[in-house]
Design brief:
Elements (H helix, E strand, L loop, with lengths): L2 H14 L7 H8 L3 H13 L3 E3 L6 E3 L2 H29 L4 E8 L2 E8 L14 E3 L4 H7 L4 H7 L14 H14 L2 E3 L7 E9 L5 E10 L6 H20 L5
Antiparallel strand pairs: 1-2, 3-4, 3-8, 4-5, 6-7, 7-8
Helix pairs in contact: 1-3, 2-3, 4-8
């Protein structure tokens, strides 16, 4: 176990339990640490914006950063509860295709939840698994809501997973522009050969995009008019989840 990390977390907990700011000496006494070590840890936590030092008295208190982190966790927890029955319904309405609930994590998407397809041949994924955002439907749906300049910062390069994977920012931006107009993004078999999909963004009460929902399956089934109809289904479900998350258009 990392002793420095353990001590840092102990300091955060000690500050959280106090109604008023406290000095470094008091923190050291409460936790049985040396004053020098406590000062060093508090300075690091201050640099990371977890604690704030008062100008007068030099006492320490927590910032809102831990609260902000907890709100992200709470939002994801609420999202999972709210979205679950919509995912099941979407899989049923799509004829038994696989359904995913994803969030953006840097240049990748992380699968928060899924409903496996009922067909013998279907798209496979794992909860907690990751995929390249620029090569997946839910990923492109999420990226379509990100400022184009920030997209450049997220994605350093384009790895060609299949012959259809986007190869440049210009090509990706064309895809994202279409997603913004249509309300949903399309994966044309760009991550896994022969696996297509559609995805649409989900919005929270603040109006920010918080996740995406999508359908994926073999290109033999998700093609042409079926792909367009799947996009409409996904968009409707994403809108329903957004409303339940408190989003008002």
């Amino acid at each position: 176990m990392d002793k420095t990390l353990t001590k840092g977390l102990a300091i955060l907990e000690a500050l959280a339990r106090r109604k008023q700011p406290i000095g470094a000496s008091d923190v050291a006494k409460i936790l049985g640490l040396t004053k020098r070590n406590t000062h060093r840890l508090l300075q690091t936590l201050q640099q990371l914006d977890f604690v704030q030092k008062e100008r007068e008295g030099g006492r320490y208190k927590l910032t809102t950063k831990l609260w902000e982190i907890s709100q992200h966790y709470a939002a994801n927890f609420d999202l999972l509860k709210i979205a679950r029955h919509h995912l099941l319904e979407l899989s049923d309405k799509s004829g038994g295709e696989a359904v995913h609930l994803s969030i953006l994590a840097g240049a990748e998407v992380v699968f928060l939840d899924k409903v496996d397809g009922s067909h013998p041949i279907r798209a496979y994924s794992t909860i907690g698994g990751r995929a390249p955002a620029y090569a997946t439907a839910t990923g492109k749906a999420l990226l379509s809501m990100v400022d184009p300049a920030k997209v450049h910062g997220l994605i350093g390069s384009f790895e060609p997973f299949t012959s259809k994977t986007v190869r440049s920012f210009d090509e990706l931006e064309n895809e994202l522009a279409s997603a913004r107009v249509d309300g949903f993004a399309i994966n044309h078999g760009e991550w896994r050969e022969g696996v297509c999909g559609v995805g649409a963004p989900i919005f929270g009460s603040s109006g920010d995009v918080i996740a995406a929902v999508g359908i994926s399956g073999p290109s033999e089934r998700l093609i042409g008019q079926v792909l367009a109809e799947s996009g409409a289904l996904v968009l409707a479900v994403a809108s329903a989840i957004s409303r339940e998350m408190g989003f008002i258009r």
